[in-house]
Design brief:
Radius of gyration: 30 Å
Distance between the termini: 48 Å
Low-confidence stretches: none
CATH architecture of the largest domain: 3-Layer(aba) Sandwich
Shape: globular
Strand order of the largest sheet: 5-6-7-3-8-9
Number of domains: 3
Strand content: 15-25%
CATH superfamily of the largest domain: P-loop containing nucleotide triphosphate hydrolases
Number of strands: 17
CATH class of the largest domain: Alpha Beta
Structural class: alpha/beta
Mean pLDDT: 86
Number of helices: 14
C-alpha cells in the first residue's frame, strides 16, 4: 500500500473568471477502489486529466506509480482486438488476457476480430481487461457503464470488486455500491474522501446538508438579534458622544465638570458597539462558510397533458428489419394512461428502434402500431454528442419557452455563467441535461425517453426520480440504472434479439 498525495492543487481554464479547483489537498491509498462523484460540470474528467499530467496546474500531485486512463485511444480500429491489447501491454501472454475476458463474460474469440466490429460494450470490457493486466498502474476509469446494459453493468461491477487501485467515475448508484470501498466527491466548494459506498456517501451528504441548513436558521436568528443590539448600542454611543460635547441654550458648554466621566462612558459605548458589529460580521462569515457546500436539488415539474381515453398506444406482433433479418422477436403490448413502462433488453436488442416506431420516425416491417388520435409525444433521444450552438438558438429551433427552459437548467445545477457558452463546450452530462430540459418544457400525452440518465449525475437522477413519481406521466423509457428502474417502473417490456 502506498499513498497518492494531492497538495494545494489549483487550476482554472484560460479565459474563465473562476477557478475550477483552488488549494485542494487530500491523500488516498493506492489500493482503494474509489467512486468519483459530483454534479455535472464540476470537473471530474478535468481532474483525471490533471492526474495524467495533461494540463498545467499549481500545487503538487505525487504518486508511487503511473496513471492509466480509460478509455485509451485506438489509432487503427481495423486492427484486431488482440493486436491492440498486445500493443498496450507487450509482455502480456494471450492466455492471461483470455482468462481476464472470461471474468467479464466476453468470448475470447473477440481477440481475432477487428476492433471496429466490436460493440461498445465489448470494447469497454476489452480495454479495461488490458489495463488491469498492466503492472504498477493506478487506473482512472471514466464512465465505463454508458454503453452497457443492465446485465453488463452487473458483470462489470462484480469484476471491479475483484480489483483494487482505481478511481471510477460513474453516476449509477447500484453499480458503484457493488464495487467501491471509498468515495471521492467534488462538492460545491471542496473535494472530500469518505470511506464506504455511494449509498453511505449520499446519506452522509444529506445529514451534512440538514445540519448546515439548521445552523443557517440558527445563525439568521442570531444575526437578527445582533443587528438589533448593534443598533441599540450605536444609538447609546451616539447619545453618549452628544452628552460629552453638548452645549446649553446660551452657547455655554454643558456637563463641563463631568467631561472625564462622560468621555469614558462614550469610549466604552463605542467599544461595545464595535465589538457587537464584529460579532455580527463573524456570524455572517460563518453562515457563508456553512452554506457554500450545500447541494440544492430543486423539485422539477412535467407539463403532462390529459388524454380523453385510457388507451394511448397498442403494438401487435411488431418487429423491425433493416435488411439482415428481424432485430427483435415480435412483441405485443399496450400503453395506458399513467403507465411508466421500462423497455429492457440486451445491447443491440432494438430498444431505440422500437421507440422510433412510436415517434413515427420509422415504420414496422411486421405487425401493427396504433396510436390514439391527436396524441402529442415528447421524445428524448439517447445521443447528445451532436449538440452545438447557443442555448438561445436551440430553444428557438425547438419552439421552447426560453425562460422555462433556462429555469429547468438552473434547477439541474447549471450555473448562469454557462448559459452564454456554446454547447460544444458542455460536458456530456450537461448536454444530456439540455435534452432533458427540452422534454420537460414540452407538454405531452406520452413521453419516450431513451437512456435519459446517461452521463447524468447522481443528485440530478434523484430529481428525475422524484419528478416521475410526483407528476405521474405516461412514459415508455429505456434505462439501465437498476435502482432507478426499480423505483420508477410500473411495468417492464422485454425485447429479445433474434438468434
Amino acid at each position: 500500500m502506498a499513498l497518492i498525495s494531492v497538495q494545494n492543487l489549483t487550476f482554472g481554464y484560460d479565459g474563465s473568471p473562476e477557478l475550477l479547483f483552488e488549494e485542494v489537498s487530500f491523500q488516498i491509498d493506492s489500493d482503494w477502489r474509489l467512486g468519483f462523484v459530483g454534479r455535472n460540470g464540476r470537473g471530474k474528467t478535468t481532474f483525471l486529466r490533471l492526474l495524467m499530467g495533461e494540463l498545467e496546474y499549481r500545487g503538487s500531485i505525487r504518486a508511487p506509480m503511473a496513471f492509466d486512463y480509460f478509455p485509451f485511444p485506438v489509432p487503427d480500429e481495423w486492427e484486431t482486438a488482440g493486436e491492440i491489447t498486445g500493443r498496450s501491454c507487450p509482455e502480456l501472454q494471450r492466455w492471461r488476457l483470455e482468462r481476464e475476458l472470461s471474468q467479464l463474460e466476453l468470448d475470447p474469440s473477440v481477440l481475432d476480430r477487428p476492433f471496429a466490429t466490436l460493440s461498445n460494450g465489448e470494447r469497454t470490457k476489452l480495454l479495461l481487461a488490458a489495463l488491469f493486466l498492466r503492472e504498477n498502474r493506478f487506473l482512472l476509469i471514466d464512465e465505463p457503464t454508458n454503453h452497457l446494459d443492465l446485465q453488463g453493468r452487473r458483470v462489470l461491477s462484480r469484476y471491479l470488486r475483484s480489483k483494487s487501485g482505481f478511481i471510477l467515475v460513474s453516476h449509477d448508484q447500484a453499480f458503484l455500491d457493488g464495487c467501491i470501498d471509498h468515495v471521492l466527491s467534488i462538492n460545491r466548494a471542496t473535494i472530500e474522501v469518505q470511506k464506504g459506498n455511494c449509498t453511505t456517501w449520499l446519506e452522509t451528504r444529506r445529514q451534512q446538508d440538514a445540519f448546515e441548513l439548521a445552523q443557517n436558521q440558527r445563525l439568521k436568528k442570531e444575526i437578527s438579534r445582533l443587528e438589533q443590539t448593534a443598533r441599540e448600542k450605536a444609538s447609546w454611543a451616539d447619545r453618549s458622544e452628544r452628552e460629552k460635547i453638548g452645549a446649553g441654550p446660551n452657547g455655554n458648554e454643558m456637563n463641563a465638570g463631568r467631561r472625564p466621566y462622560l468621555g469614558e462612558k462614550s469610549r466604552k459605548a463605542n467599544k461595545r458597539a464595535k465589538a457587537i458589529a464584529g460579532r455580527q460580521e463573524a456570524a455572517i462569515e460563518e453562515k457563508s462558510r456553512l452554506l457554500k457546500n450545500i447541494e440544492k436539488a430543486d423539485n422539477l415539474r412535467l407539463p403532462c397533458l390529459s388524454y380523453r381515453s385510457e388507451l394511448l398506444a397498442e403494438l401487435t406482433d411488431v418487429t423491425v428489419d433493416y435488411g439482415d433479418g428481424p432485430v427483435f422477436r415480435p412483441v405485443s403490448f399496450q400503453i395506458r394512461r399513467g403507465d411508466r413502462l421500462n423497455l429492457i433488453g440486451r445491447n443491440g436488442a432494438g430498444k431505440t428502434s422500437l421507440l422510433k416506431l412510436l415517434t413515427g420516425e420509422a415504420a414496422p416491417t411486421r405487425g401493427a402500431v396504433r396510436l390514439a388520435g391527436g396524441l402529442t409525444v415528447s421524445y428524448l433521444p439517447q445521443d447528445a454528442s451532436g449538440l452545438s450552438g447557443s442555448l438561445t438558438d436551440y430553444a428557438r429551433q425547438n419552439g421552447l419557452d426560453y425562460t422555462m427552459f433556462l429555469t429547468f437548467l438552473r434547477k439541474l445545477d447549471f450555473q448562469r455563467s454557462q448559459f452564454e457558452k456554446p454547447m460544444e463546450q458542455f460536458s456530456m452530462g450537461q448536454k444530456k441535461k439540455v435534452l432533458l430540459a427540452r422534454s420537460l418544457c414540452e407538454p405531452a400525452h406520452l413521453y419516450l425517453w431513451d437512456e435519459p440518465l446517461n452521463f447524468i449525475d447522481i443528485l440530478s437522477r434523484g430529481q428525475v426520480e422524484d419528478l416521475l413519481l410526483e407528476s405521474s406521466p405516461t412514459i415508455l423509457f429505456v434505462e439501465h440504472d437498476a435502482r432507478f428502474c426499480d423505483r420508477i417502473a410500473t411495468g417492464r417490456i422485454c425485447l429479445q434479439r433474434e438468434p
